[in-house]
Design goal:
mainly alpha, single chain, about 55% helix
């Protein structure tokens, strides 16, 4: 979910080729973006169940031994 939001912010707020002149400008732009996103209350329509995702993505995640 966080990766989706980060990707959206990069595409919508931090447009490629745009120069951001200061940290204050960056903070202002990203704050405006995330306030708009939070106000729209978007949802994610997950296409697979948790057990299916764990099975399909099993090789991508390390095994943790306890």
């Amino acid at each position: 979910m966080a990766e989706n939001e980060q990707s959206s912010m990069m595409q919508q707020c931090l447009v490629a080729g745009r120069r951001i002149g200061s940290i204050e400008e960056l903070a202002s732009d990203t704050t405006a973006w995330h306030e708009d996103v939070n106000n729209t209350e978007r949802e994610i329509d997950w296409q697979m169940k948790t057990d299916d995702a764990r099975h399909k993505l099993n090789l991508l995640y390390p095994k943790i031994k306890m």
